[in-house]
Amino acid sequence: xxLVAAERSIPGPEGLELEIxxxxxLATGARAAFxxxxxxxxxxxxxxxxxxxxxxxxxxxxxxxxxxxxxxxPSDMMEAARFLNRLELLPSDDARAEARLRRL
Length: 104
Known about the structure:
This protein is mainly alpha-helical.
């Protein structure tokens, strides 16, 4: 079984160390792989705000001093946001669906 999620019983510092009272969610290998793929597929939609910010920065809408390099976001969210921006340039829903499948 693989750890797929954890829930803190008492709000506290974020991190990977287990605390007494934490609830751990385990899944079989196949289910864990499916959950990982589902999360990867949803990341671009979850990064929509970041994608908009990247577009604004690249268009120079937020000033000369602002740049995409100044964004402090996890690399997987940055990649998902850039992917979402590329999706919007594709000509059809079929092309977007194909691109999403290729990404997986």
